[in-house]
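Researcher: Next entry in the queue.
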Amino acid sequence: MQHIWTPWRYKYISSVQNKSECIFCVAKECPDNKDCFVLHKGIHNLIILNIFPYTNGHLMIAPFEHIASPAESNTEQLQEMVLLMTKCLRSLKEVYKPGGYNVGMNIGKCAGAGLSDHFHLHILPRWEGDTNFMASLAETRLVPEALDDTYEKLLSKFEEQAATGISMEEEIL
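Model: Structure for this entry, 173 residues:
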């Protein structure tokens, strides 16, 4: 068996193993967005990097409210989530120039939700040939960029979008 060392991930892994707190609820209250890899806090939702990404730029959008399904959500939360999804797609396109995206939710534990009591939307940029033998045969993913670098690249795009002067409320209307 081949070992691929990722020592920069130990700090997070060791801190998460001892906590039963919801990562989205913790991120909502996080005083320093960078510490929690939060890229944006809207009115009803936040955008956060997945710290166990399938690809570079793997983002998640989650409502502030701790609810298990979009069926429990309200119209404003869902509208903002979709608008934030478009912000994510624009930012990912500018930074990473992917060939496509996977966008979706796993609702409920038997559907594959790792956090089944707080629903969230995954956005993954994809490229031709980004699935290789490592994921297919060795059950290993290679992510060639550190999370801090991904965060800084995407944060600058979200800040640029915010500087356009269009508020989330105006976009919803």
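Model: Residues 132-138 have pLDDT under 50 and may be disordered.
Researcher: Noted, moving on.
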